Structures are given as structure tokens and as C-alpha cells.
Amino acid sequence: MSIKELVGQTTILTVARKAPFGYFLSDGNEDVLLHNNEVNREVEEGEQLEVFLYVDNEGRPTASMVIPEIAAGRYGWVKVTDVKPDIGVFLNIGLQKDILLGRDDLPAHKSVWPKEGDMLYITLRVNRNYLLYAKLASDQVIQSISTKAERESFNKNVQGYIYRTAKVGSWIYTLEGFKGFIHESQRKQEPRLGEKVEGRIIDIKEDGTVNVSLLARKQESLDLDSAHVYEYLMSRNGAMPFTDKSMPEDIQERFGLSKGAFKRALGKLMKDGKVYQEGGWTYEKKDS
């Protein structure tokens, strides 16, 4: 097998000779450069080294003593380092050179593209010119590394990374190793690919996969909605032209809440003695 055919993988090569800018390594037939930037300890001529092979900016195979967690056919979690809307996102796999996940392998809508710092589960693919690119893990690959959830996990909070996204929902791999699905009705907005999210398990399927909701629990949601409404009221010096009789579309436009959620939030504020309604307006209830 030629050196080029080993690009994207680790192999054992012998240190053939030193050069001003690094070392030449050999498999007995071909030489490949190990640049000084890719050397992480003292090496000697004749020594056998385990190295990772990739292609430099001029298309030449080059070696690194830094062995990435991922390789062609081997998957791992890697961090997004840069986003280029015209070509895709770049990922740090531990080498001097970041790896591209091309735009064709990313969601059609750029609003759910990963951002810098997000995490993706990928492997490497090698194209016809022996250039390395990132390849996202398929659903089957995620399934192969996942752990089955037990009934005791029901209603528990979980955190995880979005590994696939679509209009109908998002797919999550949790820190516990559960493979889950977030239906579009269980999220306020569509999370990004690679985004870390927190939710709770609302169903456990026969196969051990889970359904997750990113929406707050009812009491948490009520508290948040009440705080949101009260904050708006106070921003208007304690008076606002909204009550539980207001039109649903007006409520939605101003607060981003359904009329039902708004009425519950307002009802809590009234019960807590913070507001009262009069003449189509809601007012702050001040201590007498």
C-alpha cells in the first residue's frame, strides 16, 4: 500500500534522515516529511514512529506525531473552530490544519449551522485527491454507540448535543449516551447542529431511545412567563393595554405567548397581589 493510500490513518514509519525543517520518514519505498511543527518529542534516525498521515496545502502527504482521536473509519467528538458560509465549517481534530465539513453535508438552512464551539460527532473521509474532509456520523453510527434508557430515567433532566436536525424535529445524543428525538412541538426554536441543549425525558421507547422536551416544566414555564409579563408591565411604568380579554394575535406579537399561557401568567401575578385589571388595562398593584 502506498503512502498516499494511508492518508487519514495512523501507520508506523522509520525515521530515515533529519532535514532543516523536520525529518523524512520512510516505509522502505517512499519518504514522507514529518515537519518540525508536528514533532512532539526528541526523535532519532532509525527510530520507528507511529504517525498520522494527511495532505498538506500543496497536496503532498505529510506526517504528524499528534494522533487524532478520529481517523478514516474512526469517529469522535470534535469542536467547531470557524464558520465560512460559502464553504462550510472547520473542525479541530488536533492537527495543525483544521478539517472542513463542507456545506453540502450541512443543513440547507444556515440558521441551524453549527457555531464556533459547538461539538460534532464525525469521522474522516478521503477524496480522490487524498484530501481529508469531515463526515458526520449517521443515525446508525449514533445508534451503535448509544446506551438504552431505563424507565427510571423518565422525567429526568438531560444535556446533550444535536447530531441531526430537520423541520419535524431534532435528534440528540445525551451525555448519558441516550439517543433521543425532540419533536418540533417540544422546542421553542430549532436548535443548531452541534449545539449543546438541556431538556427532560418525556418518553422512553421500547428500543431504549428517548423523546426529549426542551420546554420548561409547567411551573417553571409559568414562573418565566409571569416574570416576562411583569417585566414588560414595569417597563411601561406599571400600566399596559393588555388583559385576559386581549386578542390572541396581539398577545402573541407582544409577548410571544399563546393566549392561554398569557392568562395563566397574568392569573399568577394577580393571585400574588402584584397586578390588577381595570378598563381594558393591567396595572401594577402598589402597596396601600
Order of helices and strands: EEEEEEEEEEHEEEEEHEHHEE
Q: How many beta strands in the DSSP annotation?
A: 18
Radius of gyration, taken over Cα atoms and rounded to an integer in Å:
27 Å
The percent range for strand residues is: 35-45%
The pLDDT mean sits at 92
Which fold name corresponds to the CATH topology of the largest domain? Answer: OB fold (Dihydrolipoamide Acetyltransferase, E2P)
Strand order of the largest sheet: 1-2-3-5-4
Total domains, how many? 4
Q: Uncertain runs with pLDDT below 50, 5 residues or more?
A: none
CATH superfamily of the largest domain: Nucleic acid-binding proteins
Family: Belongs to the CvfB family.
GO molecular function, one term: nucleic acid binding
Pfam families: CvfB_1st, CvfB_2nd, S1_2, WHD_CvfB
Domain S1 motif: 155-217
List keywords for this structure.
288 residues, alpha+beta, OB fold (Dihydrolipoamide Acetyltransferase, E2P), five-stranded mixed barrel, five-stranded antiparallel sheet, 16% helix, elongated, CvfB_S1_2nd, S1 motif domain-containing protein, WH-like_DNA-bd_sf, nucleic acid binding
Structural notes for this entry:
The protein is an alpha+beta fold and 288 residues long. The protein folds into 4 domains: 61 residues, OB fold (Dihydrolipoamide Acetyltransferase, E2P) (Beta Barrel); 62 residues, Beta Barrel (OB fold (Dihydrolipoamide Acetyltransferase, E2P)), CATH 2.40.50; 67 residues, OB fold (Dihydrolipoamide Acetyltransferase, E2P) (Beta Barrel); 67 residues, Arc Repressor Mutant, subunit A, CATH 1.10.10.10. Helices cover 16% and strands 37% of the residues. The protein contains 4 helices and 18 strands. It has a 5-stranded mixed barrel with strand order 1-2-3-5-4. A 5-stranded antiparallel sheet has the order 8-7-6-9-10, with no helix packed on it. The longest helix is centred in the last third of the chain and has 18 residues. The protein is elongated and about 90 Å long. This is S1 motif domain-containing protein. Belongs to the CvfB family.
